[in-house]
Every structure is written in structure tokens, then in C-alpha cells.
Known about the structure:
mainly alpha
Amino acid sequence: MRTFANWMIAMFMIMYWAFRVVVAYQASVYAEFFVQPINLTVEIILLFVTIICIVLVFKRKMIGAIIYFLCYFGYFGADLVNQVIPVFTSGHGEITNPMSAFTSFLGIILAFAVLLDLAVDKGRKPKDKKTDWFYTNEQYDRQLDDRADKNNYRTL
């Protein structure tokens, strides 16, 4: 998490998760909301899986991004396909629930952005600038070994 883009993508993950919590809550209390979950049980399970994935993404683990992408692509991708296919087959060009289709599309794009962010990031492991120069510098190790052989201290 070194760049501003890393933090922004992680914050969008948290904001989208909070939005899906509100959607699930509104559906569970049978309140009217502009977006309805596809399947409430799967939505709740996905919310808990997302929490784990957010922690893994903050730790810069690739497995978290892969699980996040696969879960969101499987859940929201099927909904998006089911809403878009009738537009092309029927010919009258109308999506039944455009806000639901937009949030599904947004979820897939966000999951892909997280996966791409972690895949492109070359240094997922945080570095400690105070000590890495010592432990990663082979030239310094060679010089230290040569110098250590020449030091013959006299003992009494």
C-alpha cells in the first residue's frame, strides 16, 4: 500500500462493501430500496468473504484479490448477463432494473481493478529502508567477508 491508487482502490472496496451491507439490510427488513440483492443468503455469505478479502488485499496478498474477483464475478456477472442478454435478443432495448445492472457492473469492475492492482504491483512486500540496504546488498557482504579475514586482533 505505497501509492495513492492502492489506497483509493482499497477504500472503494470498503465503500462498496458498506453499500452492499445496506442493500442486504434493506432487503432483510423488507424496505423499499433502489437496488435489491440477487439472493439474500448468498449476499450475506459474500459480505463475510469480502471482509476476509479486504484484509488480505490490505496485506497485499494475491490470493485475496483472486478470491474477491472470482466471488464478485460469479455473483454479479450472472446477474449482469441475465439483465443484458434479453436486451439483445428481444430487440426493444430495455433493461428491467438499470440500477441493479449498474451496481453489478460496478462490482465486477472494482474486483477487476483490485486484481489488476495487485498483479501489476511489483513490490507487494513492504520494505524497510533502514535495513534492506544491508541485507540485500551482496557487494557489501563480499567486502565484509574480505575485511573480516584480514582482521587479526591480538588477544592477551
